[in-house]
Amino acid sequence: MENLYTFALVGSVVFVILKFLESKYYLKQQVPLKTYIRDSLLVYITIVASHYLSEQFNPIQKAFSSPHVFTNNPDF
Fold it and tell me: What are the structural domain ranges in the chain?
């Protein structure tokens, strides 16, 4: 679980860096720091929530797997 939070933190930091570069070089306008923080927090929460939801639906995926059945002739 600790790895999840590190992954989410790295993802949000990469997002902020890319967003900063986009606003500085592509859009060429100043964006307030508050906007960067809000967007990075939103990305962080989204990554954690999507991992949580995928873990919740994981038993459903296992339930639909094919059953292990013995199909050969019996040895007795």
Answer: 2-55
Supply 41's token pair.
Answer: 């927090």
Q: What is the mean pLDDT of the chain?
A: 87
pLDDT > 90 in the chain, percent: 61
Report angle CA 13, 43, 60 to the nearest 5 degrees: 125
Tokens coding 4? 């999840």
Q: Residue 39 in contact with residue 15, Cβ under 8 Å? A: yes
Q: What is the C-alpha separation between 44 and 9, in angstroms, rounded? A: 6
> How far is the CA of 12 from the CAs of 8, 25, 36, 56, 71, in angstroms?
6, 20, 10, 23, 51
